Amino acid sequence: MPRIPAVPAGEAGFLTKLLYRFTRRRYGAVPEPFAVMAHHPALMRSAGVHEMLAERASKVLPANVREIAVYRTAVRIGCSWCVDFGTMLQKHGGLDIERLKHVDAYATSELFSRQERLALAYADAMTSTPLQVTTEQVAELEREFGRKGVIELTYQIALENMRARTYNALEITDQGFTSGDACKVPLP
Asked: How far apart are CA 81 and CA 58, in angstroms?
């Protein structure tokens, strides 16, 4: 149970109810972070718009590279909600979620491509405290993905750091979007 309870639909304002309806249709349930953020409707709306714009803008990198880096960030921070939701998004995106069990061994595992290993190492470096990103690492990423790709990867990893740290601080835990290997939310 989160440190701050979710705002029930019956107590939500008009715009919040619309957001709840939209997210319920899209994900099969209202994501608990949104329902907790509903205590501050302006920030909740801002976060929702930001998430949609970031999703629409992030089309330079291959989806598997972007999503595995975001997933790794959630794992490193220990955000069970982010891991749960991220697994569901990857499954719905047609990505192989079976290999997520092996993400800790990405550096030597044949389950991950060279591009994915570069992105995973970058996620580790960005998520470490203090940051461990090197000039050489960014140069290698730029050779592989181009400048736009490096910016997109950096932004998505940073965004997941913000999400995961926020949800951990508020003690928002996994919501059951996935159960083991099977996604509870039907595929679109």
From this structure: 22
Q: Which two tokens stand for residue 31?
A: 């994501």
Q: 180 Cβ partners below 8 Å, 6+ apart?
A: none
Domains of the chain: 9-57 (no CATH), 63-169 (1.20.1290.10)
Question: Looking at the chain, which runs of residues are DSSP E strands?
Answer: 178-179, 182-183
Instruction: Compute the distance between CA of residue 37 and CA of residue 170 in angstroms, rounded to an integer.
Output: 10
Peptide bond into 8 cis (omega under 30): no
Task: Give yes or no for a contact between 38 and 7, defined as CB atoms under 8 angstroms apart.
Answer: yes
> Comparing C-alpha atoms, which of 71, 94, 98, 77 is closest to residue 156?
71
Q: Report pLDDT digits (tens) over 46-103.
A: 998 999 999 999 999 999 999 999 999 999 999 999 999 999 999 989 999 999 999 9
Mean per-residue pLDDT over the chain, rounded: 93
| Residue 40 clears pLDDT 70, i.e. is over it | yes
Q: What is the pLDDT of residue 182?
A: 43
* Distance (Å, whole) CA 176 – CA 9: 19
